[in-house]
Structures are given as C-alpha cells and as structure tokens.
Amino acid sequence: MDILRWLELKKREIGFSHNALVIIAMFTMFLDHFALIIIQGGKLYGYDYTLYQNAIKLPAARIWIILYTVLRCIGRISFPVFSFLIVEGFRKSSNVYKYFMRILIFAIISELPFDLMVFNRISIECIKAQNVLWTYLVGLLMLSIIKLMSSLPTFLTMIPASIACAITFFLRSDYWLEGILLIYVFYIFRHDLNLKCLFALIVTFLSTIEKYYGLGVLSVFFIYFYDGTKGQLDLKKIHYIFYPLHIAILYFALYISNVYN
What we know:
- The protein is mostly helical.
- The chain has one domain (12-259).
- It is 74% helix and 0% strand.
- The chain has twelve helices and no strands.
- It is globular and about 60 Å long.
- The termini are far apart.
- The mean pLDDT is 92.
C-alpha cells in the first residue's frame, strides 16, 4: 500500500497531459522511422540485400548500427502510447463515427508513404503490409462491439478481440497482434490503472523482447503517469497528419540524397 501511495503522489507531481503524450509519441516515432529510413535504408543500403550485407561488414558501419539500434529501441515507446490515446479518444469522443472516418481517411493517405518506407517502391508486393492505422480502425470496431456487450460477462469480450486479431492478421496491418491486445487491455481495464499498466507491461515486454530487449515497457511509464488533462494546445488531429507527413519527408530526403550522391 505504501508503494501505491507513493506512486499516486508521484503521479500528481509528474502528470503527463494528453498533449504531452501526443508529443512524446510523435517524437519517439520520428526517431524510430529516422532509423528505419535514413540509417537502415540509406546509410546501410537496407533496401538492397547484397549492398546491405556488404555495408554492415565495414568498420564505419558500426556506429550506424549502434545508432540504429538505440533509436529503434527508443521508438518502442511510441506505439503503446498511441494505442492508449486511441482508446482515450474512443471513450471521450462525442461522435465515434467521425472519429473512425478521420482515421480511415488518414489510413488511406498514409498507405503510399508507408509502402515506400517498407518496400522502397509501389508494387503488388505492397499488399504484404499495411500501415498501423488499419490496426487502429479494426481496434475501434472491436471497442464499439465490446461497448454494446456491456451487459454481458466480460470474458465474452474475448470473442470480438479474437476476431479483431484475425482480421488484422489477414490484413497484414502493422503491429496487428500487439495493437489489438493493447487496445483491448486499455479499454477492459480502463477503470483500474494498476491492472491496465500491468497487462500493458506484459504485452509490450513480450512484443519487444526478441529484437529490442523488451524496452517497449518504457511506454508504460508515460501511460501510468497520464493525468487525464488535455493540455493547453489543440493537438486533436496533428498526430494523424504527422504520421504520413514525416514518413514522406524522410523518404524524400533519402531519395534526394541518393540522387546527388
């Protein structure tokens, strides 16, 4: 109990607003995609397997590989925080249909920059992966169904959650399993901060342990200390715009660099 009281006091002292979480998630996402596009795709020739294998053997590549790993580990903070914000948006939205349509529009807009980031071209191969906003769309549909099931036993909500996992798997949308599980956890335990963060800790650790040392758990710190306030700025749509825009800018920078080198 003393630990819980101490954490509650710290929460009041630190207190991340909604806007603060948006900025943190956007910044860490930018670092993650900078590593993916500029370092791996550019400095290490990651879009060409043969060139990449040759590049990473060079002594000069070591610093780039270290920087790439560090930035991608920091980038694991972004996705769980965005997933949390999606659930908060669903809970507080006065019009879920408009909320859904806004994300749908940006999911369509983001597909081209996402394909360029992942595949370095637009081709039939691009159907193998869709951007993360499609995962969020399926997650919102899942939450809408779960909300309709509020009078039923909680364990039955695992049915729409399982269906949502299956849909995102077949869509091949980014973060499919982790995304649906986090959205589910954040909503089901929305009234219990400790359980919400405990299960989020488990999901983020398991989903990042293989490549990123389990550092996805760092995101739970910011979620735990969320104070429920909006903040002074109006950042309602900025992160949806920022998602395709920053990918396009980074990829364009890579393209220009390749043209003039």
